[in-house]
Amino acid sequence: MLAVLTGGAAWAYYQSNNIPYSDIPKASNEKREDEKKKVASDQARVTELPTVTVPETVDPSSVKPYTTVTENETYKIRELNGDYVITLYAIINRPDQSDEYRDQLRRYKQDALNYLKEHSVDVTKVNIAYEPEEASQL
Questions:
Q1: By residue range, what is the domain housing residue 91?
Q2: What digits encode the pLDDT tens for the residues 62-72?
Q3: Number of domains in the chain
Q4: Adjacency order of strands within the sheet including 83-88
Q5: Quick one: three-class SS letters along the chain?
Q6: Which of 64, 65, 70 shows the shortest CA–CA distance to 86?
Q7: Is residue 52 part of a domain?
């Protein structure tokens, strides 16, 4: 058994010393350059601002460059010059669902305000507009 192990070790040593240097894989500069270009292109894609086409019927001066702070399935928060707009995505399908709709608005509004508080925004000292407007009364 010892002879088999020793023979195997000797064979492995012999093989490792007899591999031509040119056959050993090397990292090529071409591959590195391709990877750098890919990373640069990915970064450019992330930092590009989306282009928005404004219909001719809309006054271009009414379009504001809001920054989207966050968006999920229940709300979206945008900011412009320290003022915030919170859009709540409550759903109403029938008039008899108005109570559930208002409950959703309340819940989503509180979730959005909690998000701002968790991110160091004093919601008592900033201007916040709500969409739909009825959420501001809740």
A1: 60-137
A2: 878 888 899 99
A3: 1
A4: 67-71, 75-80, 83-88, 128-131
A5: CHHHHHHHHHHHHHHHHCCCHHHCCCCCHHHHHHHHHHHHHHHHHHHCCCCCCCCCCCCHHHCCCCEEEEECCCEEEEEECCEEEEEECCCCCCHHHHHHHHHHHHHHHHHHHHHHHHCCCCCCCCCEEEECHHHHHC
A6: 70
A7: no
Examine residue 34 and state whether it is found in any structural domain, yes or no: no
User: Tell me, what's the pLDDT at 32?
Assistant: 62
Integer angstrom CA distances of residue 95 from 10, 18, 79, 91, 92: 85, 84, 32, 11, 7
Query: So what's the pLDDT on residue 65?
Result: 80
Query: For the whole model, what pTM was predicted?
Result: 0.57
Task: Report the residue count for the chain.
Answer: 138
Residue 65 falls within a domain, yes or no? Answer: yes
Q: Which residue type occupies 44? A: A
